[in-house]
From TrEMBL:
Positions of phosphate binding: S25, R65, H66, T197
Pfam assignment, any one: PNP_UDP_1
Subunit structure: Homohexamer. Dimer of a homotrimer.
Protein name: Purine nucleoside phosphorylase
Annotated site, Important for substrate specificity, chain positions: S178, T236
Organism per entry: Candidatus Kuenenbacteria bacterium CG2_30_39_24
Gene3D superfamilies linked: Nucleoside phosphorylase domain
Other notes: Although this enzyme belongs to the family of MTA phosphorylases based on sequence homology, it lacks several conserved amino acids in the substrate binding pocket that confer specificity towards MTA.
Alphabetical list of InterPro entries matching this protein: MTAP (IPR010044), Nucleoside_phosphorylase_d (IPR000845), Nucleoside_phosphorylase_sf (IPR035994)
Length: 278
């Protein structure tokens, strides 16, 4: 069966979940009446069993990107299986969060960045479902759902989380961090944050007509900003402290976003594939 037809068949199935969340394991106690589901996809198994439950009447599926025990490094995460598994459950909107280093002095540790563009600097990741004979070209001019991005910004403002409503995230292969010259180059390009895990989630979601918003959780300034008089070198303890607070903030943010996601879609994400096939 052609991949396009498989996707169509999935859309016709009963929806177990409508909203997907990809992030860290701190979300596990968030859902009501939760149960774990094992799924096998044409692209293998996802990172972890998927937790499915409800939150304020919404059916939500949560997936731990690195696995419960954080056993998967960034370059070994089964990105295709993760996104396909959420699609199999009926997910139509995905909220992702990822830790990131700041590349600009005005973006501080503790800030949230609602990304509107990405730059791919990964090397060995399979970032498409379509390898032929079906050929599809998806636009990435506006890779994130405008409706979800607007909602995320409104909720950040409401609960007083320091945030940036736009930002470009550059994703590196990992698991190593950037060198100082690499980081200085990223900063010079006016890119905002650097991360190892967000790509190719965003493009795979677009290929399956899923709306996606990404929230980068800034834990530190990257090494390319060394020497800036406004910035003091951070310690591991400080990074861990910021990370812990970010986890609590993102849980509060999700608790505000999820109930407000509208049932009807007014964006073009869910129709992306209609003009993509050759």
């Amino acid at each position: 069966m052609k991949l396009k037809n498989k996707i169509k068949k999935i859309k016709e199935k009963k929806k177990i979940a409508e909203i997907g969340v990809i992030g860290g394991s701190g979300f596990y106690k968030f859902l009501d009446q939760a149960r774990e589901i094992s799924i096998r996809t044409p692209f293998g198994q996802p990172s972890e069993k998927i937790l499915v439950g409800t939150y304020q009447g919404k059916k939500v599926a949560f997936l731990s990107r690195h696995g419960k025990n954080h056993h998967l490094p960034p370059h070994k995460i089964p990105y295709q299986a993760n996104i396909w598994a959420l699609k199999m459950l009926g997910v139509e909107r995905i909220i992702t969060s990822c830790t990131a280093g700041s590349l600009q002095s005005h973006i501080k540790p503790g800030d949230f960045v609602i990304t509107d563009h990405f730059v791919d600097r990964t090397k060995h990741r399979d970032d498409t479902f379509f390898h032929g004979p079906e050929v599809a070209h998806f636009s990435m001019a506006e890779p994130y759902c405008p409706t979800l991005r607007k909602l995320a910004a409104e909720c950040c403002k409401k609960i007083s989380i320091p945030y940036h409503k736009t930002g470009t995230i550059v994703v590196i292969e990992g698991p190593r961090f950037s060198t100082k010259p690499e980081s200085r180059w990223f900063s010079a390009q006016a890119w905002d944050v650097v991360n190892m895990t967000h790509y190719p989630e965003v493009v795979l979601a677009r290929e399956l007509d899923i709306c996606l918003v990404n929230i980068a959780l800034v834990t530190d300034w990257d090494v390319g900003l060394e020497g800036n008089p406004k910035i003091k070198p951070v310690t591991t303890q400080e990074i861990l402290g910021v990370f812990k607070q970010n986890v609590e903030n993102v849980k509060e943010l999700l608790s505000n976003i999820i109930p407000k996601i509208p049932k009807e879609k007014d964006c073009g994400c869910w129709q992306a594939s209609e003009s993509a096939f050759v």
